[in-house]
Amino acid sequence: MQFLAQILLDGQGRPVTQDDTTADRVMAIFMCQNDPGMCEEWSPTAGGNRALLFASDGLQPLPTPEVEPDDDEDVLHLGAVNAVALAPFPSADYGSAREEWAGLGDSDLSNVLGQLGGEPDWLQHPETPICPACTHPMGFVAQFEEGPDHTTAMNFGGCGSAYAFSCAPCAQAAFLWQC
What's the pTM? Predict the structure, then answer.
């Protein structure tokens, strides 16, 4: 499975912004890239994707391996890794905020990579996952767009959006996409 994103969450399962230091959990999101389109990665329960929650206590980034210039050993490269900036917009919904941001200067709509919190902007019908532990609807965490660069873009069918959810009390998470 390919790593797609990680999101810091507070104790209620809501995304934590870069200015907030109250992260209680980390959500890590993965999607099958073995024969893309054949893994049912659009479903939150079919096994083609996975969202995991980890307690944030004790988590630390791994150090970059050091290699001497004359060392013949190969270094493991993880591919393109991107950090994104949060740009808050007070619009009533995600679609309006996305259009508003794209209307600023030289901004391109394809550079909007999604939203943290709020309400999902479903491309099809609502598919809010049910927590497998407590059977209540999960809370919305984030929505993702594919991105502007095909070499680093997430693959949601070429036209899709993805949605991450969590059930904070049960420490469960789910991920799906629509096109």
Answer: 0.81
